[in-house]
Amino acid sequence: MTVPAMAGDAAIVHPEQWPKGESPLPPDPALESRIRDLLAKMSVAEKVGQMIQADIKYVTPDDVREYRLGSVLAGGNSKPPGQPYPVASQWQTLADAFYRASMDTSRGGQAIPVLFGIDAVHGHNNLVGSTLFPQNSGLGATRDPSLIHDIGEVTAQELRASGIGWTFAPTLTVPQDVRWGRSYEGYSQDPALVAQYAAAVIGGLEGKPGTSSFLDAGHVIATAKHFLGDGGTHDGRDQGDARVSEAVLRDVHSAGYLPAIKAGVQVVMVSFSSWNGVKMAGNKALITGVLKQRMGFDGIVLGDWNAHGQVPGCTNEDCAAAYNAGLDMLEAPDSWKGVYKNTLAEVKAGVIPMSRVDDAVTRILRVKMRLGMFEAGLPSANSLATRSAEVIGSPAHRAVARRAVRESLVLLKNNQGVLPIDPRKHILVAGNGADNISKQNGGWTLTWQGTGLTNANFPGATSIWAGIQAQVKAAGGSAELSVEGDYKQKPDVAIVVFGEDPYAEFQGDLPNLAYRPGNDHDLDLLRKLRGQGVPVVAVFLTGRPLWVNREINAADAFVVAWLPGSEGEGIADVLLRTRDGRVAHDFHGKLAYAWPRSALQVPVAAVAQGERPQFPYGFGLTYADSANTGALPENPGLVLSSAQAGVYFTRGKPAQDFVVRLTGANGVAMNVAATPAATPDGSLQIGALDYKAQEDARSLRWMGAGAGAASVELVAPMPLDVERETNGDVLLVTTLRVDAMSPDDTSSVGVGCGTSCHGWVPVGRQLSALPKGQWLSVGIPLKCFRDAGANMSRLDRPFVWSSHSGGQIAIAEVSLSTVADRTLTCPTQGAKP
To answer: How many CA atoms lie within 13 A of 45 on its CB side?
Structure first.
């Protein structure tokens, strides 16, 4: 049997060629009878309500009471009201409120407990004080399914302790191009390893089917995601198109799903992405034909965050096609009211058959009953929730995470045996990742992007520096922390911790695998210390393999620590000898992804074409290996530009190949080659000043002369596409200082997208209220520029500041981010000020 799709022969599905499976839970006549009885009592409106999931930022308990919604979720930046960094009791209170609303029948209807889901992807990462594990790309290096099971079990217990019974994990993607910003959510490029881990982690989260532990009070519902092919998109583009054969889709990208089903997974989340031009959220052949019918999945098929809105003919508020394709529940975070209204009308009109509705609601009720929700009572009454202080971040849980850190470390280089380190020596710990718990965790950590955090947000956690310091002190040695590598006493060895800053999803998409293109700060630090005769151990924090040949050459030893989570002392366990000189923990990790030879090499594709990666899949040294790593080639294969990372202006300079342009009030433009400078008419002046380093910022002074506006703009070397960032609530952030600005200042910040294409946001009045002389990061949502008329897919000027008024500001950086000290509101104007 073949099932045609909407995009021609390339997207035809042959379900009979896919592996056949079935639920490990045999049909339960009593449970199914109970479902049928409840279904018969439900109105059409109640059934539709069950098929919708709303985000807690946009839905209240009273909405659940009125609309009988089946589920709520807490998205990456959604928290209990007024609690940006919630503790367990605050999650419990919110979960109780939604539960009570769902069980309240005072307005009529059936009492059906609401499901509460959250992204607990490396531990309960939305909970202050929780145990945080290495991100999945690091766990792949451990090759330890029993550890993965234990991690799932700990995560489930800490979720239950906070009153939540459902996680949107595990991610079973098989990334083939790590330019993709979600690569660190995948365990490996190897489908066999992903398949092995799928069963292990789901067993930990849910318990074993057929036993009393399955979905008991100490376990939670797991979600296998994202079905299907999200790790195989063209050029590693998030929400992109997997242009692969059906055989590759089946054998590589679906490898984890049958093991997940056999392990009893109760939810499968469908991907944003497409397969050969067909959006997965509308692909009936794969969702219904393969997942439900061929593989025998009998749980809930859930859409991703408004992903249904990308199906042709659909909007975020209306998508009968997604339900008809086989989605049982739409994740409609901010669009749920429209989805409810339109879906109800479409069911009544027969556009969505009642048989499809009943199938969806049956699956939803089945999962809720398997979880025991109808008998469990308030989430806060769970036995783990009543003793949450003993459970969350417990020593036993942190020991599992510390073990995971030790096992995930991969040693790429160890020349002259600089490792392991004698802890009785004097050790310098340097680099901006050394004492930075946020950086060592990465994205999906307390906030969606994992940014805007300090060590104080992680009670009970241990930074890498703190772990090293504790062991060195206990052994009788001495340790010194200096981010920039300066020291009071020359060290016997330096440990330099550096790497990627946190990101999530499309914010992490890269055009190539160069590490920090255009910014050699970390490389310079390594070279500086080594040039002073100090042996250097590099500890690299990253979610994925990146081209770091220069950094590897500049170090005596190079350790990939991935994104290790909350237990930084696990790194000291391996790098340092014991007090009596023994090696307590050797290197264990083996690469779960091949390492690139150049910034342009995509290792999986390169190997398929007969090319060698720099380090192959499975590589990883131990202390028993004596071979020295020779000098690696330092040609990246391309010109490195910092603009690739969404940084347009930094340390007082434009990104590589960008131009700073001034336009006077008389309309005459000039490029700035050096500072100080001024427009020919004198209406705008630019100069250099010190912020954190010498001349790392620029001052701008408007004279307010003439009838026209004077402006400064950053001109990109080629048009930039930031449409996805715009949809994802990303900000244009300027690190600035207001020195002089009147209350009626006319300043506007804009973007340009070609001739007569722009979008402007007036900022003068809001900025004039800021404290004078104080540095702040000020953000403007990219959506504001789009709403003001800009085409965000082709920005040639990603930053323009224009004003008629006199005033003075200083600017140190302009970049894309999700965090700012102040986020401006966005009244817009379509014409240039």
So the answer is: 10
Q: Rounded CA gap, 757 and 760, in Å?
A: 10
| pLDDT at residue 705 in the model | 61
Q: How far apart are CA 543 and CA 540, in angstroms?
A: 10
Tell me which residues of the chain have a pLDDT lower than 50.
Answer: 7, 830-831
Backbone angles phi, psi at 436, to 5 degrees: -140, 90
What secondary structure does DSSP assign to 473-499, as a single string?
A: HHHT-EEEEETT---SS--SEEEEEEE
Query: What is the average pLDDT score of the chain?
Result: 94
181: Cβ–Cβ under 8 A, 6 or more apart, which residues?
A: 238, 503, 504, 505, 506, 507, 508, 509, 510
- Distance, in Å, from the CA atom of 712 to the CA atom of 347, rounded to the nearest integer, reads 55
Which residues are CB-contacts of 822 (< 8 A; sequence separation ≥ 6)? 770, 776, 777, 778, 779
Q: DSSP letter string over 714-777?
A: EE-SS-B--HHHHHTT-EEEEEEEEEEE-TT---EEEEE-STT-EEEEE-HHHHHTSPTT-EEE
Query: Among residues 720, 723, 683, which one has the least CA distance to residue 703?
Result: 683
Residue 350: count of CB within 10 angstroms of its CB: 8
CA angle 109, 113, 119 (to 5 degrees): 135
Q: How far is CA 795 from CA 641, 654, 723, 816, in A?
A: 17, 16, 10, 13
- Reading the block at residue 801, the tokens are 């500041």
713 is catalytic: no
In the prediction, which pLDDT does 3 show? 59
* 359 is known as an active-site residue: no
Catalytic residue among 238, 317, 505, 725: 505
Side-chain half-sphere CA neighbours of 187 within 13 A: 28
Give tens-digit pLDDT for 822-831.
999 887 554 4
Q: Please compute Rg for the chain using Cα positions.
A: 27
| Amino acid of residue 620 | G
Q: What is the pLDDT of residue 831?
A: 44
> Pseudo-torsion of CA 182, 727, 228, 124, nearest 10°?
50
Note the pLDDT of residue 640.
61
What are the tens digits of pLDDT across the range 157-213? Answer: 999 999 999 999 999 999 999 999 999 999 999 999 999 999 999 999 999 999 999
Structure tokens given for 255: 């490898």
Overall size of the chain counted in residues: 833
- 3-state SS of 259-294? HHHHCCCCEEEECCCEECCEEHHHCHHHHHHHHHHH
Cα dihedral angle (647, 648, 651, 654), rounded to 10 degrees?
Answer: 150
Residue 719: closest CA among 793, 785, 800, 788? 793
Q: Closest by alpha carbon to 561, among 595, 587, 524?
A: 587
- 585 and 575 in contact (C-beta within 8 Å)? no
Render 48-67 in DSSP notation, one character per residue.
HHHTEEEETTT--HHHHHHH
Q: Of these residues, 63, 230, 304, 331, which one is catalytic?
A: 304
Scan for tokens 């929730």, then name that residue.
385
Q: Which H or E run includes 530?
A: helix 521-531
| Helix 395-408 with 145-161: angle, nearest 10 deg | 140
Alpha-carbon distance 547 to 558, whole Å? 13
Order across the sheet with 241-242: list the strands: 241-242, 274-275, 278-279
Tell if the pTM clears 0.85, that is, is over it: yes
Residues whose CB is less than 8 angstroms from the CB of residue 395 and which lie 6 or more positions away in sequence, other chains included: none
Q: Is the dihedral angle over the CA atoms 216, 219, 221, 224 positive or is it negative?
A: negative
DSSP 79-92: -STT-SS--HHHHH
